[in-house]
Design a protein that fits this description.
It is a single chain. This protein has a single domain, classed as Nickel-containing superoxide dismutase (Four Helix Bundle (Hemerythrin (Met), subunit A)), CATH 1.20.120.400. Helix content is 68%, strand content 0%. The chain is built from five helices and no strands. The chain is elongated and about 75 Å long. The termini are far apart.
């Protein structure tokens, strides 16, 4: 075969599509749900319906926070293990540490309700965004949906 080339992808097929945007959206959702949880106040009094509504809202926010933290972790690990190669690491010697910290923050955001950790996760995702687009020779501005 002439003209063949090597391809890489985030899955076992050679689509070659990578983008940290999905990790950003998930990390933003983690931060949003964390802030909503911290703003919740249990109802005063003994109204069973009010307590049930509070618990329902609390559980929904936690469920979303947990699933989005897991999604962020999955998306980050795909980039870390499948996209970035030795030349990227040579150009960015802190890349492994940045990814490791981001993955650990995903876990911490599941274990706790901490705006500090949720903000730190979003900061790490931003650092990964910057390195990713730099590696592609593109200047893609960081923008959040929130």
């Amino acid at each position: 075969m002439t003209g063949s080339k090597t391809v890489s992808a985030h899955c076992d097929g050679p689509c070659g599509i990578y983008d940290p945007a999905s990790a950003r959206v998930a990390a933003e959702a983690v931060l949003s749900m964390t802030n909503k949880l911290l703003a919740l106040s249990p109802p005063a009094g003994d109204d069973p319906a009010a307590h049930a509504a509070y618990l329902n809202t609390f559980a929904r926010y936690v469920t979303i926070k947990e699933s989005q933290a897991e999604l962020a972790k999955s998306e980050l690990l795909i980039l870390w293990t499948d996209y970035f190669k030795p030349p990227h690491l040579e150009a960015n010697p802190d890349l492994h540490t940045t990814f490791w910290e981001a993955a650990k923050l995903c876990s911490a955001c599941k274990q706790e309700i901490s705006s500090e950790k949720a903000n730190a996760l979003l900061e790490r995702v931003r650092a990964i965004h910057d390195v990713f687009w730099q590696s592609k020779g593109r200047d893609v501005p960081w923008m959040t949906a929130g």
